[in-house]
Task: inverse folding
């Protein structure tokens, strides 16, 4: 049985009350690790460690080059330990071998990207400066202590999406992974501990809602970075408002793909299946709605059914498995309940809809396809976060855009077409933070990521993501040193304003 301790101020320790929690493998519901379960007192200690480290300047005062070198060191150690990290992620999350191997690369890439971005000089002299009169500088400084709370679907990648930009900006951080996937984060803590990062700069704790509450409300915290559901994001935003904390929220989605009549249907159908069923649809950007006109509707549905029938459900450790378990018993029940809701609402169940035979020992759900879905149905409006795709018929291209935008979310979207100009015209009209054309799930760490509407606040990744961990300061240096030329007490307004 594996055992893990929380990581505070450069030290691995048990929780203050010695409580523990189990790490459960969703493939067979077996317990494979015991973890220290953080208390509120542990959380306060982690925040204080981060506060003390930040205020001491032990990290924030380092040069851009020094910070970059340490982040690159962490990236290289992630790469060296990728086999172990991958095994742990498969066990804790049910991620397939193929998906988790990709996650290891993306975790390494995120760290490497921010090691490069850390070298960027974000300061600038503003154009309003006038030689001999004044110099105006825009200076970006680290925001301070960051509380980061991440979900269970991409545990290591999400950890690095928070840790790497925080370090690049000069911040200190307290990270709380989801209770379901804390093992890989605590293994990551060992990697961080072996680097040249000073004590207290990164702290990794575990726990549930009460720990998260302390992280969000503690007055020593300057910023909250959260990835998770819209419902929890709203609560975090309300709690953070009490002390006016800076927030970045990457929340839920109900993303729509639009297949145009001229699309290559082999490409569009395979891509739409990837959009909707990758990692069992447990992705904030999952293409969980699919829209097209009647001209290609029946053929697309038939092709999707055939595609799903060929997907291999199996042990996530097997390299050829396409569909593994969902994250937990609780989530399996939730997804199955939504499938029943879809049936009751009148949607036509085309494929799946239950627990696959032979996999009752785990938290499995069949890849499920609904056709004849009305966009007002709950399965078309609410984030299921499971392997459930809703196919919707549109009258025409404009109607497809209207349907795609008729949601409270705005995280992602996609267009499938042979005509890039036509597709780009539609992409411009979709109210979403990321829109793919003839692609899905492909992200670039140098490009910003985030959502419109109730899909979030702010952006992650790229320079925008780095700037999110900074405060902006304007410094005015006056070069007029003759007291007689100052007009402090006799201000006159020019008659002719520029």
Result:
């Amino acid at each position: 049985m594996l055992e893990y301790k929380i990581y505070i101020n450069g030290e691995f320790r048990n929780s203050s009350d010695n409580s523990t929690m189990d790490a459960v493998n969703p493939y067979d519901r077996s317990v494979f690790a015991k973890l220290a379960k953080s208390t509120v007192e542990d959380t306060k200690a982690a925040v204080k460690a981060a506060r003390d480290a930040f205020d001491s300047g032990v990290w924030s005062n380092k040069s851009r080059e020094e910070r970059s070198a340490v982040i690159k060191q962490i990236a290289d150690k992630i790469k060296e330990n990728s086999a172990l990290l991958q095994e742990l992620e498969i066990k804790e999350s049910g991620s397939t071998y193929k998906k988790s191997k990709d996650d290891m690369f993306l975790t390494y890439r995120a760290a490497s990207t921010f090691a490069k971005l850390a070298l960027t000089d974000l300061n600038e002299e503003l154009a309003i400066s006038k030689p001999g009169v004044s110099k105006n500088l825009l200076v970006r400084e680290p925001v301070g202590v960051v509380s980061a709370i991440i979900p269970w679907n991409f545990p290591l990648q999400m950890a690095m999406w928070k840790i790497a930009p925080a370090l690049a900006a000069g911040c200190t951080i307290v990270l709380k992974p989801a209770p379901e996937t804390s093992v890989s984060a605590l293994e990551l803590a060992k990697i961080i501990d072996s680097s040249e990062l000073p004590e207290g700069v990164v702290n990794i704790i575990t726990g549930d809602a009460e720990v998260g509450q302390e992280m969000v409300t503690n007055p020593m915290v300057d910023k909250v970075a959260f990835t998770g559901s819209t419902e929890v994001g709203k609560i975090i935003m309300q709690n953070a408002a009490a002390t006016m904390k800076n927030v970045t929220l990457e929340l839920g989605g109900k993303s729509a793909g639009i297949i145009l009549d001229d699309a290559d249907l082999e490409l569009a159908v395979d891509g739409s299946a990837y959009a909707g069923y990758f990692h069992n649809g447990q992705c904030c950007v999952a293409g969980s709605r699919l829209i097209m006109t009647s001209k290609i509707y029946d053929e697309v549905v038939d092709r999707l059914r055939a595609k799903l029938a060929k997907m291999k459900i199996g042990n996530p450790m097997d390299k050829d498995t396409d569909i593994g378990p969902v994250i937990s018993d609780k989530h399996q029940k939730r997804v199955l309940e939504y499938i029943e809701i879809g049936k009751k609402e009148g949607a036509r169940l085309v494929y799946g809809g239950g627990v696959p035979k032979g996999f009752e020992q785990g938290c499995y759900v069949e890849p499920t396809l609904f056709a004849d879905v009305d966009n007002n149905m709950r399965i078309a409006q609410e984030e299921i976060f499971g392997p459930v795709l809703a196919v919707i018929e549109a009258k025409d291209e404009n109607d497809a855009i209207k349907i795609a935008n008729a949601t409270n979310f705005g995280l992602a979207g996609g267009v499938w077409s042979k005509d890039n100009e036509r597709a780009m015209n539609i992409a411009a009209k979709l109210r979403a933070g990321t829109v793919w054309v003839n692609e899905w799930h492909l992200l670039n760490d140098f490009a910003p990521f985030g959502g419109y509407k109730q899909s979030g606040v702010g952006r992650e990744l790229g320079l925008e993501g780095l700037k999110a961990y900074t405060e902006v300061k304007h410094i005015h240096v006056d070069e007029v040193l003759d007291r007689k030329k100052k007009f402090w007490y006799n201000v006159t307004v020019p008659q002719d304003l520029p």
About this structure: The mean pLDDT is 97. The radius of gyration is 25 Å. Residues 394 and 400 are 5 Å apart (CA to CA).
